[in-house]
Amino acid sequence: MADKSNMEMIQNSILDKACMKQDVFSVIKHTFEEFKSVLAELEGELKKFTEDKDQRIEIALKNPASGAAELYFGSDLLVFHMHTNVFTFPHDHMIYKNPYVKKDPKNGYVGVINVYNFLADSYRYHRMNDSGYLVARIFVNHERHFFVEGKRQLGFLYNDFANATLDREGIRAVLESCLLYAIDFDLYTPPYNHVKEVTVSDLTQLAQYQSLKTGKRLGFRFQAELDNTEF
Predict the structure, then answer these.
(1) By residue range, what is the domain housing residue 36?
(2) Residue 108: which residues within 8 A CB-CB, separation 6 or more?
(3) Segment 138-189, tens digit of pLDDT
(4) Which of 16, 29, 157, 221 has the fewest CB atoms within 10 Å, measured from its CB?
């Protein structure tokens, strides 16, 4: 017969952790709905501006699934994806030096929204081999405290995990930072030696499906801007 104290520990641990993860998931799900709402506002503002300036510029928000959203703007596309699981961090992660997490380890469990940058044509023409890049990871816990791992300003503007809560104003700021990064992240032509040979199959498929692999930094080493900021 199993030790009663062990069984009680198992039962209590399951209940405690399962409830906590449900709380985190509820928060990240609600937060992502707010993300899509703010994205709709941005779409309307940008569309109104570009229609008066140049109607060739596409501005469109698409929601293929409840856990994803796509914002097209000019030649760029940002894909927002909410993960359905709850995560914590490796024990050597800087987050565990934060007094907020030291005080209560539950605060270190988070939901995640990933933001990817693709060329709009990659989705428009179904170029399945094309590359996209992770622009940001937005982590939100059960109290809506958040921080962001990301490129350039996204990697250091949003790192006050102990005090910052992700309200609508904060969501807007994060989204604007993602847009600014993607706009500034230009498409480079790959080195000549990387594309000097192609097969008949490549060119045949290119004519039919635009299938030669394309990405903003294809053929170049894409090196993350390192962030030494402590959370």
Answers:
(1) 4-209
(2) 88, 89, 95, 96, 101, 141
(3) 999 999 999 999 987 888 899 999 999 999 999 999 999 999 999 987 655 5
(4) 221
Query: Is 107 contained in some domain?
Result: yes
Handedness of CA 85, 91, 92, 97 (dihedral sign): positive
pTM above 0.85, yes or no: no
3-state class of 112 per DSSP?
Answer: strand
**So what's the pLDDT on residue 227?**
41
115's tokens: 């933001």
Please determine, for residue 40, whether its predicted confidence score (pLDDT) is greater than 80.
yes
DSSP string, 125-170: TT-TT---EEEEEEEE-TT-BEEEEESGGGGTSS--TTT-B--HHH
Domain assignment of residue 217, yes or no:
no
Tell me how many domains the chain contains. 1
Q: Within a domain: residue 58?
A: yes
Predicted confidence (pLDDT) at residue 224 exceeds the cutoff of 60: no
Which pLDDT band, with edges at 50, 70 and 90, does 190 fall under?
low
Query: Pairing between strand 68-73 and 76-82?
Result: antiparallel
